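for the record, two folds in this file. i put them one after another cuz i was lazy. first one right below, seq on top, structure tokens after. the second one comes after a little note so u can tell where it starts
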Amino acid sequence: MKYIKELFQNTYEEKKSKFVAYLMPYDNFDKTMQELRQEHPKARHFVYAYRHLNEFEQIVENCSDDGEPKGTSGKPSLTVLAGNDLINTAVIIVRYFGGVKLGTGGLVRAYSASINDVINISELFEYKKLEQARLKCEYSELSKLEYLLKQENITIVKKDFSNEIIVNIELSQEELEQLKIQLPRNIILL
């Protein structure tokens, strides 16, 4: 599975109709939809589709045709997201009608093409389930630990300097196993 970390945009044209596709992280969906409705007051349709993981690691999907003929825009958009194995990702397609009717097949092709085009210009990342872990170290070892974590692209969530130094990190199970091998003896995994 793959996901994106930032917003990507691309415009596709078909018979004078414009399809402006916005691909974004799922967490930004509601806010982006509000902004786009204000930014594009003359647009005819705001079609969307999204796929995300819930707290039980199940895929939740939803889509909307937003006034287009049933099944010609939202469902094909969702199919493109699923076909590209995207997760925690949403797409909103803003359509400006160009005066020429595309027909149901034409709409399906146009929406699918607009989403494929924006996916092609996007930077995709491999999804991995993240877990929390805690490391305990002496102050003199902190810079070594931070360097090691940075080299391994492991995110430091929080550092606690109360009695002893506790570093909270977020990483995948595979990264945790690899980190255990690399940790010096005086840095303890809690």
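(here's the note) second protein begins now
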Amino acid sequence: MNQELPDVARHQVSNIRTPLEWVGMSGIDIPLSLSEPEGSAPLHASVEAQVNLPDVTVKGIHMSRIYRMLDGLSQQDSVTPVDLKAVLEQMVISHSDCGTDSARLVIEFKMLARRSALSTPGLAGWKAYPVKIEAVLQQGVLQLSAAVQVEYSSTCPCSAALARQLIASHFREHFSGEQLTTEVVSDWLETHATYATPHSQRSVASVQVSLGANEGGFGLMPLIDRTEQALATAVQTAVKRADEQAFALLNGQNLMYVEDAARRIQEALSEGYQGVEVSVRHLESLHPHDAVAYTKGF
């Protein structure tokens, strides 16, 4: 039992002399508490962790060392960008015998937030937001980004205009030459205003921003909130009829092409954020294909 166990990665040399950009693990499940303004609750995270392998003679890296570092990270009360940089530095140091000078972490999870109904007092529900944090340390320089995904409703401006035209035409045909009162028009609208309806669909906005290496938190919920506020039609959780009516009103007042949605988000994040990338997708109800828009910069 005291016999030394074989270590192939250490004692054998690779027959193919090729450097590798990233080597490591993916799909590592850990609990993680991230530093956020509203507190840090444990999250179920899936992590990728890798280092580069520039030494062409080294057969394999030390994956168990990386795993133990991630286990240590999972036991911290509140993880900050500074903590991620420290782990990446440890990953590089622990692989000095491999010539390693770069390390990478990708952390994915869903952040739960409790959202109030639009109109009904005391009514609320939970919504999950997919999040991806990527941290790369290259020659001692940290590049850190956070990406969030927000679902919203989009009503087509063209479809709305076409529907209004049909309703107006139907109205003129119905009341040709008649003298009308407000009450008569109101009664007609309650029955016939949906003679034609515009198409709308669930839509998805993916937003990525750069983060500072020395910040005390990741600012995920403020980023989600600002994106939802820009769109104005975020999908709801618990709803009663009054909330559904309020949602219909928001959709009618915020008609959006995919281009409109991307520009709204871009403008909303133009102050206070760097390295912004916006990708929006409208899961069309008119077509079997989707409408998409993407913008990067500022």
